[in-house]
C-alpha cells in the first residue's frame, strides 16, 4: 500500500547494478524521480541504445558497435603481436602507455573456479583460433598479477604452447620510480628472482 | 577510438545516479553489457514506466500513481492529524511503528540554504493550504533532528502558528532501551532539559 508499484519496480531494477543494495537503490530511485527525471530519461535511452548497438568485436572480443572494431581494422598495428588482457579497461591502460603497437584479445574475465568461470565460460577456443591464424608470431599475456590472473596466464600458456605458439608474460618487479623501502616483500622477492643482465 | 560511443554514453548516463563516479559508472556499464543484459533491459523499462506513471499525491505530496494516494483516500485515517516528514522513507518509518493513524505531508526535502533550498523551493504554500483546510487540528512536525531538519521545523512552526494552526514536534531524548553510558552528551543534555513529570 505504501510504495507505488512503478517505484518498487524501479528500486528493484536498480539492484542489477553491481554494489547497489536495497538502501542505495531506494536512494537512487527517489533521487531520480524527485530531482533528475531528465537524467533518468537519458539513462533509460542510453541503456536501450547500448543494448541494441553494442556487441563484441569478432577478432579481439572487446565491446564494439562494428563487427570488427576499428583497432583490429587498423593498418597501423602490428598483426604479429597479440596481447591478451582480462578487460577493456586493462586494454585502455596499455594503450595509454603508447608502448605497444600490436593487437589485443580481451578475455572479458579470468579463469576463476570459485566463481564458476572456467576455460569453457571464457570460450578460450576463440582465442586459440585467433592466435593460430598464421600471422600472430607472439602472444603476450597481460592478465593481472593476482592469483586468478596468474592462474589464467598459466592456463593460457599451456594451451597456446601446446599448439606451438610463442608465449610471453609482461614483467613484474619494482615499479618505475619505486623505492625498495616501500615495495612489498613479495614483489621484491620476485624482482630478485627475475633479475636481468644489466645493460652495458 | 577506443570506447564505442554507445558505451561512452551509457557510462556518462549512469553518473546521474547519486554516489556513482566515473570508475563505478564504468564498472556498472561493463557489468550490465557483459553479464546482465536482461537486468539492463529491465532497468530501462522500469525507468521509463516510473517516469510515465509516477507523480506526486495532490494531498500529501508523496510519490503516487494516482492523483490522490491510497493513504490520503483511506477512511481509516484520522484527518485531524497531519504529520510533516522530510521524505517518503521517513513516512514509511513512522508507519512501521503502527503508532500513528493520522495523515501525512511529505516535504520531499528540507530547508537547506547552503544547497539553495528555501521555503520557495519546497513550495511550502501547499503545506499551508493543506494544514488550513479546516479539518486538520494539529500538525506534528517530524523532520529530522539534524541542523537542517531543526531549521525546517522552526520555519514551519512559525509559518503555521501565524495562521493559528496548532503545531507539535516529535520528542527527542534517550532512545528506548538506551543506556546513558552510550548516549551522546548532546542528546543527554536535551533529555534533561525536556524532562517530563514522572507518571504516577
Ligand atoms: Zn577488435
Ligand atoms: Zn497522499
From TrEMBL, chains A, B:
HAMAP family on file: RecR
Function: May play a role in DNA repair. It seems to be involved in an RecBC-independent recombinational process of DNA repair. It may act with RecF and RecO.
Protein name stated in the entry: Recombination protein RecR
Taxonomic classification: Bacteria, Pseudomonadati, Pseudomonadota, Betaproteobacteria, Candidatus Accumulibacter
Zinc finger region(s), C4-type: 57-72
Similarity comment text for this entry: Belongs to the RecR family.
PANTHER family on file: RECOMBINATION PROTEIN RECR (PTHR30446)
Pfam families cross-referenced by the UniProt entry: RecR_C, RecR_HhH, RecR_ZnF, Toprim_4
Organism of origin: Candidatus Accumulibacter adjunctus
Gene Ontology MF terms: DNA binding; zinc ion binding
Ranges for domain Toprim: 80-175
Keywords: DNA damage, DNA recombination, DNA repair, Metal-binding, Zinc, Zinc-finger
InterPro entries from the UniProt entry: DNA_Rcmb_RecR, Rcmb_RecR, Rcmb_RecR_Znf, TOPRIM_dom, TOPRIM_RecR
One GO biological process term: DNA repair
UniProt KW Zinc keyword: yes
Amino acid at each position: 500500500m505504501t510504495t507505488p508499484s512503478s517505484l518498487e519496480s524501479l528500486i528493484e531494477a536498480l539492484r542489477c547494478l553491481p554494489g547497489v543494495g536495497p538502501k542505495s537503490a531506494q536512494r537512487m530511485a527517489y533521487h531520480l524521480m524527485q530531482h533528475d527525471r531528465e537524467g533518468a530519461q537519458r539513462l533509460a535511452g542510453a541503456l536501450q541504445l547500448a543494448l541494441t548497438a553494442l556487441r563484441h568485436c569478432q577478432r579481439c572480443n572487446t565491446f564494439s558497435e562494428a563487427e570488427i572494431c576499428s583497432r583490429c581494422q587498423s593498418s597501423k598495428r602490428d598483426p604479429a603481436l597479440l596481447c591478451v588482457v582480462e578487460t577493456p579497461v586493462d586494454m585502455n591502460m596499455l594503450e595509454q602507455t603508447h608502448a605497444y603497437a600490436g593487437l589485443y584479445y580481451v578475455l572479458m574475465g579470468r579463469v576463476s573456479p570459485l566463481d564458476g568461470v572456467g576455460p569453457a565460460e571464457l570460450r578460450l577456443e576463440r582465442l586459440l583460433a585467433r592466435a593460430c591464424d598464421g600471422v600472430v608470431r607472439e602472444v603476450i599475456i597481460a592478465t593481472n598479477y593476482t592469483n586468478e590472473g596468474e592462474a589464467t596466464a598459466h592456463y593460457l600458456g599451456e594451451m597456446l604452447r601446446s599448439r606451438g605458439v610463442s608465449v610471453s608474460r609482461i614483467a613484474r618487479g619494482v615499479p618505475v620510480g619505486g623505492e625498495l623501502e616501500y615495495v612489498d616483500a613479495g614483489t621484491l622477492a620476485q624482482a630478485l628472482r627475475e633479475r636481468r643482465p644489466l645493460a652495458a
